[in-house]
Amino acid sequence: VVGQDVGALRKHIALIGFMGAGKSTIGREVARLTERPFVDLDEEIEKRHGPIARIFDERGEPEFRRIEEELAAEALASDVLSVIALGGGAVLSQRTRDVLRHRTFAVHIKVNVAEAWERSRRSDRPLARDKDAFHSLYEKRQWAYERAREATAEDVDDVLLGTLGIVSTNLSSFRLHASSAVVADERVIALHPPPDGAPVYAVPAGEDAKKLAVVARLWEELSLDRSGSIVGFGGGSTTDVAGYVAATYMRGVEWMAVPTTLVGQVDAAIGGKTGINLDKGKNLVGAFHFPSWVLTDPRFLATLPAEEHRAGMAEVVKTGLLVGREVWSLPEHEMIRACAAFKSAVVLSDPYEEGRRAILNLGHTFAHALEAGSGYTVRHGDAVALGLLAALRLSGQPTEVVEEVLGPEPVRADPDAAWAALKRDKKGEGVFVLLEAPGKPVVTTVSDKDARQALEALIQK
Ligand SMILES: NC(=O)c1ccc[n+]([C@@H]2O[C@H](COP(=O)([O-])OP(=O)(O)OC[C@H]3O[C@@H](n4cnc5c(N)ncnc54)[C@H](O)[C@@H]3O)[C@@H](O)[C@H]2O)c1
Fold first, then answer.
1. What is the pLDDT of residues 92-146, one digit of tens each?
2. What's the pLDDT at 281?
3. Can you tell me which atom of ligand 1 is nearest the CA of 238?
4. How far is the CA of 226 from the centre of ligand 1 (A)?
5. Chain centroid to CA 42: how far?
6. Does the chain have fewer CB atoms within 10 Å around its N or its C terminus?
7. What is the pTM (predicted TM-score) of this model?
8. Is the Cβ atom of 268 under 6 angstroms away from ligand 1?
9. Contact predicate 22/111, CB 8 Å
10. Which one of 203, 240, 336 would you pick to mutate in the ligand 1 pocket, going by the greatest count of ligand atoms within 8 A of its CB?
11. CA 327 to the chain's CA centroid
12. What is the pLDDT of residue 2?
């Protein structure tokens, strides 16, 4: 299953659209967040052939288009996955559009013509010298962007969400293909009708779904062929199990996540990690299997119990600390969007957790230790809140954010059992995710003495 061709996982991110749309500015930021190199094709052209206005005036537009097509082909042929901003007219070339289709995830950066004109009129762009001609060129080019694009975007977060198929939508009018199967949390379907059009297979509510027996039952009961797809409808537990069944059934079928919890919408449904629990530990069997789509509908969250909302807020605060932005103060839909976009960026930079993706574990080592040390009576969200507190203390960073937004209280747990679980988790390496500053995570070693002290401060005396 490793190496799936979903979104921009194995492709360049190409930004297309009219001049003045902001492709270079957005592209540079997407590249920074996904840790991919950034290529601005207009800049490349100018580096090699001098100012674009001069090429137009001295050698004519057809010669410019020839150069543009050649450099686009060269950039798009690179094996280093990059973010590439193309000039406004580059997609007029059939050859460029063909390469875009095969080697890139192309995102149309949308802009209205008035704004594009305001941004372009004072530049030395040769095609922005006359307002009427600019307007008619804008109209004439839209078909090419529409034909070449796989997603549309207006800002950085839109691009990042698009590259992993994350869409916020009202699901009430959504109809599934009959060749799909919905794997749904039984509590959730009592509260919200699942997406229409396909058979529904109910699984136990929450964590009880992440069991081999549930997976085995689904394997037996599903009747899909290899072109069918599975829809996971519920919180992170349901999408974890639905994704795992999709990874294994018929050696892997496509799947889509419809997360109904805050944890699911900001974290669990994104990034392709799927799996189940064993008696001896959580998430010990699983696979990377990326959903082709993650459809989030904010209306599901209205029925979420307060403690499940709190669990989601712990992941939101974690994300805000990692990205260096007070995402927890944003209106809910913007908060979810910002967190999901950041997770997408980290996942795109390291889809199979070989390096950077580990930063998403900020606070989680302590959380897992507290859960194990309490015999799993401490709720995950409360444990993550405490884990963030420990990570901030070890980082020498202020802890007010966690205290004010999450209000964690020390929990009842056996300190020796918690410590043993932490040591097992670290496999003796003592490596933790800490913060140099908000937005600057570091992976670093911590002495046993400091780690144990930080852990014990989270446990009721
Ligand atoms: N795959 C990943 O990358 C990843 C990341 C984080 C967490 N996870 C996993 O996610 C799981 C936790 O997921 P979760 O926090 O979303 O909770 P969950 O799926 O366990 O659900 C928690 C409870 O909320 C209920 N519920 C779900 N949606 C509801 C709604 N809209 N209204 C009312 N009740 C609703 C469920 O029935 C359940 O009782 C854990 O198993 C964890 O390991 C996976």
1. 999 999 999 999 999 999 999 999 999 998 888 888 889 999 999 999 999 999 9
2. 83
3. 19
4. 28
5. 29
6. C
7. 0.95
8. yes
9. yes
10. 240
11. 15
12. 44
